[in-house]
Amino acid sequence: MEADIILRKVDKAPTEDAQTEASASAQNKKLSSVSVVFPAYNEETNIEMTVLKAIGAFKKHFETVEIIVVNDGSSDGTRDILERLRQEHEEVRPIHHVQNKGYGGAVRTGLKSGRGDFIFFSDSDGQFDLEEVDLLLRHINDYDIVVGYRAQRADPWHRKLNAYCWGVLVRYLFGIRVRDIDCAFKIFRRDFIQSIRIEAEGAMINTEILAQAGMMHCTIKQVPVSHYPRLSGAATGANPLVIFKAFVELFNLYGKLKATGYKELQTKA
Can the keyword Plastid be found in this entry's annotation (predicted)? Predict the structure, then answer.
């Protein structure tokens, strides 16, 4: 049984005046509520800046904002900073993993804990401009899911190469034609997140979510966003063990989907 991720197009393009009017109206009328999810592992040098920027950016667009930071067993001062931020800002809601569960495990905890009508997630390392959530929200009423893609990825060449090879493999196996599958700048409706089963502990989490979105015939809009170099802290995505676990999860997911009658996900542009 084929399942489609449908990249929907508007039947009739609005005029420039209509687009301007719609944008102004959207800016004046706030959406109901959002849960903003950040996984964090040893991000003591970045997490406070990220949280404060998130509060400012999302309160412009939502009546109610909660910032869920999943401290994934950090051994530095991340926990203490989050607990202080909890006292200082009512929007902040930290969740602490006693042991490190991996990137996917932290994202899963945050997504499933969200209480807002919308759930957004990003990384806590400051590589995205959270003010650009506005670029996603312009399309949220017309699509089930809106995802960012890094217009110009600001990572070392080896990480870009790893990401390219990974993307080619995932698209070949699952037919997901989202151009930047692992871009951590996505917004969903909470009812979708609550309806899917997320098992990935590592980098496979984005593929797992988008594969299920395709099987449910969700509509997806892709939007270019800015990406900046990491200024401090250490990334873990290029760790050989992390990469190995990602491949194990990849083929486990593929096997599970084939076993349930899954054939191929096809994206219609």
Answer: no
